[in-house]
Amino acid sequence: PDSAESAAARAKGLTVLDGVEERLPVPDGAYDGVVCCIVVPYTDARQAVAEWARVLVPGGEVRVSFIGLG
Predict the structure, then answer these.
(1) By three-state DSSP, how is residue 21 classified?
(2) SS3 content of the chain, % helix, strand, coil (to 5)
(3) Which of 4, 9, 28, 47 could form a cystine bridge with 14, CB 3.0-4.6 A?
(4) Contact 26, 15 (CB under 8 A)
């Protein structure tokens, strides 16, 4: 996200990080949820999904969106 989007998200109490989806800069089990918009087609999807599982607490949720599928 650009700096204005990041600032708006942070103002709402969200954590915004810069990183590579396959190697997120957070410890194991650090988050209740992951939001991923548009990125998956541009990554190694298997590594990305494994990384989501690594950073989520047990029972955590992932929300993924794609544009242009279908």
Answers:
(1) coil
(2) 35, 25, 40
(3) 9
(4) no
